[in-house]
Amino acid sequence: MVCKTIGDQAGFDIRSFDRNRFEEMHIEVKTTSGPASTAFFMTAAELEYAKSCALHYVIYRVHEYAPGSTEVRFFVIENAPDELEFTPALFRVRQRF
């Protein structure tokens, strides 16, 4: 997994391969315990990567996650920059000197 070998700055979690298109794919996994409509967070690096590699980038959206459950509910979001609504939620702040 890229997230463990490179870290969060990679912009995605898993390097995979699409057998139908014969192309490398990059997967970002977003998980919440709430329903599919629950908002989730993306880092600036993830958003920039999604924009720059939209044809090779998908989000696996895991929802209603419960530890110990044997059922996994998810769907795939392709073309994330056009399909999702992004709202700024965090600012980097430092004191001026």
Q: What's this entry about, in short?
A:
The chain has one domain. Helix content is 18%, strand content 28%.
Which features characterize this protein?
97 residues; alpha+beta; 4-stranded mixed sheet
Terminal Cα span? 41 Å
Order of strands across the main sheet: 1-2-3-4
Sequence of secondary-structure elements:
HEEHEEH
Helix share of residues?
10-25%
Stretches where pLDDT falls below 50 for ≥5 residues? Answer: none
Number of strands: 4
Please give the largest β-sheet: 4 strands, mixed
Rg, please? Answer: 15 Å
Q: What proportion of the residues form beta strands (DSSP E)?
A: 25-35%
Give the overall pLDDT as a whole number: 88
Overall SS class: alpha+beta
Task: Give the overall form.
Answer: globular
- What count of domains describes the coordinates? 1
Compute the number of helices.
3
Description:
The protein has one domain. It starts with a helix and ends in a 14-residue tail after the last helix. It is globular and about 55 Å long. The model has no long low-confidence stretch (mean pLDDT 88). It has a 4-stranded mixed beta sheet with strand order 1-2-3-4, covered by helices on one side. 11% of the residues are buried. With 97 residues, it is of the alpha+beta class. The longest helix has 9 residues. 18% of the residues lie in helices and 28% in strands. It contains 3 helices and 4 strands, in the order αββαββα.
